[in-house]
């Protein structure tokens, strides 16, 4: 079975500071990993994905994520946070042979001006 | 280019009733997945449709059923509604030949409230 853990319900960061949103996963095969962002009363917007290759993946809006196989982690990062980055962030995984995304419980990011 | 659209936006039903939610995939996409997102939780996979067939199903009871039409649009039906069915229902589409590598594109969701 595949699963995702987002250990922090909320992350607070000051505008201009770097941010990290943590994600760990569990799969039986090779993982395909995704990050999505959700704004209030909106659907999920795709940010980035890891399929294979470089462990550092760059995505939309200046976000990037680092895949670490030994630690089974896929943390989302951004060098300089914006107030407009405040939203709910979801990590998701697909395991070998699976077509469905399994999501974490989400992390609320609050960026203070 | 329109993205994934869903209707209605909001819906209020009472226990025991039946509901139908609708989804039109992003142009050029042929696969539709449905997710349930309860308040404060991540989305949970209900099922996926491809070529008008249910291809994979999550851990949801038979009260949840679906359909995909030849134009790739899809419906989610829920019978005998329970209070616990109150949630945001998300539809996601993905393009042909994508396998599991491609991201899914999500619609804005339908907020279902069961009283």
- What is the distance, rounded to the nearest whole angstrom, between the alpha carbons of the first and last residues of chain B? 37 Å
Proportion of helical residues of chain B: under 10%
CA-CA gap between termini of chain A: 41 Å
From the alpha-carbon coordinates, what is the Rg of chain A to the nearest angstrom? 13 Å
Helix segment tally of chain A: 0
Query: What's the order of the H and E elements of chain B?
Result: EEEEEEEEEEE
Structural class of chain B: mainly beta
Residue stretches of chain A low in confidence (pLDDT < 50, at least 5 long) are none
| Main sheet specs of chain B | 7 strands, mixed
Structural account:
The complex is a heterodimer of chains A (113) and B (115). Chain A is mainly beta. Chain A is built from no helices and twelve strands. In chain A, a hairpin with a 4-residue loop joins strand 8 and strand 9. Chain B has 115 residues and is an all-beta fold. Helix content of chain B is 0%, strand content 50%. Chain B contains no helices and eleven strands. In chain B, strands 2, 4, 5, 6, 9, 10 and 11 form a seven-stranded mixed β-sheet that branches.
Which short descriptors sum up this protein?
A: 113 residues, mainly beta, four-stranded antiparallel beta sheet, 12 strands, 51% strand, globular, B: 115 residues, seven-stranded mixed beta sheet, 50% strand
Compact overview of the structure:
By secondary structure, chain A is mostly beta strands. Chain A has strands at residues 3-5, 10-14, 19-21, 24-26, 32-38, 44-50, 56-58, 64-68, 73-78, 87-94, 102-103, 107-112.
Note the topology.
The complex is a heterodimer of chains A (113) and B (115).
Chain A: E1 3-5, E2 10-14, E3 19-21, E4 24-26, E5 32-38, E6 44-50, E7 56-58, E8 64-68, E9 73-78, E10 87-94, E11 102-103, E12 107-112
Parallel strand pairs in A: 2-12
Antiparallel strand pairs in A: 1-4, 3-9, 5-6, 5-10, 7-8, 8-9, 10-11, 10-12
Chain B: E1 5-7, E2 10-13, E3 19-24, E4 31-37, E5 44-50, E6 53-57, E7 64-68, E8 74-78, E9 87-94, E10 105-106, E11 110-114
Parallel strand pairs in B: 2-11
Antiparallel strand pairs in B: 1-3, 3-8, 4-5, 4-9, 5-6, 7-8, 9-10, 9-11
